[in-house]
Amino acid sequence: MSIIIFNFFLERILSLLNSSRYDSKLPEEVRDVYDNEQYYKSQEYKKVNERFSLLTSTFSFLLILSILIFHVFGYFDQMARSVTSNPILVALLFFAIIMLASDIVNTPFALYDTFVIEEKFGFNKTTLGTFFLDKLKGWFLAAIIGGGVTALIIWIYLLTKEMFWIYAWIAVTGIMIFINMFSSTLIVPLFNKQTPLEDGPLKDAIQSFCDKVGFNLGNVFVIDGSKRSTKSNAYFTGIGSKKRIVLYDTLINDLSENEIVAVLAHEIGHYKKKHSLTNILLGVIQTGITLYVFSLFTVNPMLSWALGAKVHSIHMVILAFGIIYSPISTVVGLALNQLSRSYEYQADQYAKKYSNSDDLIAALKKLSSKSLSNLTPHPVYVFFHYSHPTLLQRIRALKK
Ligand SMILES: [Zn+2]
């Protein structure tokens, strides 16, 4: 409970610090991102989101504290045990009850966020049908991937006990690499359509850039992001022959040809600098360490009792461990964010070298303006939460 209370107040302090900078004077380099009306709108958007996150996080905070105080997890455990005595099935049922309950509680907030806040600021393109269909697909994936991994880990634990973390590590690594390679052909198509670039001047421009830097155009796809939101994006994913760069259709509509090539150059930069590979490697190491530390807790029945269960079980330890381990994962997260920001600078420098830094700056400004993003976040907030440097930092680095 101390950890949960600490996390909540840390988050509130970070959020307060960040909001203290909302009305700061805009630095010279980013003054032309917004016109007056758009700037006023972005200020409103920040404040509405801030109030909403205060509401949702306070609600979740009070809810989880009550759950711990009233031993709700213990009741969930009993419910699962009343159905079956197979330890793997008990665990799957137990997590299914938690997921379902948390989804029911969170859905009204998600609906409000999408259909009231995002709608009011003109971002939302999602229909209620798509919203609930996404939810069903999410449950389906959680059941297959989440359920599969949980069942596998518990099965390995029951078979091997002491050395279980090594076998679990090997299994989870295999699954992580598989998902990384095949998510764009197996998972993304459940939610979006990805198509090759249409013939035309944009494709020609991208083709000639790809030829110049040695990247296969066949790995560039356009995704129908406009199905859900007007916000735009581009990303690099996958490894080896499964690598691909995905451009949002919204990005293609909003940016000029040169700006799109500059964004593409940034994404190719991520590939050339092997960022995706390094991330997978770090993920594998992190998983190994987490599983090892976890294995030290598995024999101790106190964690199960602390959550209100009468019987010691591995799924109770998984849940308790998720809370106890969070200070460590926060620190790891800080390091990974720092690394991710340095990757962004590297990809920007790549784009500057092989494409054009003015085009990239123009593109980044348009993207920031379109998404009403915060141009003056607090540095401490950036340090904790930003996976990308701020627009101002990126512009300054590009102009150096
Ligand atoms: Zn990037």
Report on the architecture of this protein.
By secondary structure, the protein is mainly alpha-helical. The mean pLDDT is 95. The chain is built from 16 helices and 4 strands.
Proportion of β residues? under 5%
- Regions with pLDDT < 50 over 5+ consecutive residues? none
Shape field: globular
Mean pLDDT: 95
Q: Number of helical runs?
A: 16
Q: Order of strands across the widest beta sheet? A: 1-2-4-3
Rg over CA atoms, rounded to whole Å, is 23 Å
Q: How many angstroms separate the termini?
A: 47 Å
Question: Outline of this structure?
Answer:
This protein has 400 residues and is mostly helical. 73% of the residues lie in helices and 4% in strands.
Please describe the structure with a list of short key phrases separated by commas or semicolons:
four-stranded mixed beta sheet; 4% strand; 16 helices; binds zinc ion; 400 residues; mainly alpha; globular
SSE layout and pairing:
Blueprint: H1 2-19, H2 36-69, H3 72-83, H4 87-120, H5 128-160, H6 164-191, E1 194-196, H7 201-213, E2 220-223, E3 234-237, E4 244-248, H8 249-254, H9 257-272, H10 275-297, H11 302-306, H12 314-324, H13 326-354, H14 357-370, H15 379-385, H16 391-399
Parallel strand pairs: 2-4
Antiparallel strand pairs: 1-2, 3-4
The structure holds zinc ion.
Residues 266, 270, 344, 347 line the site of zinc ion.
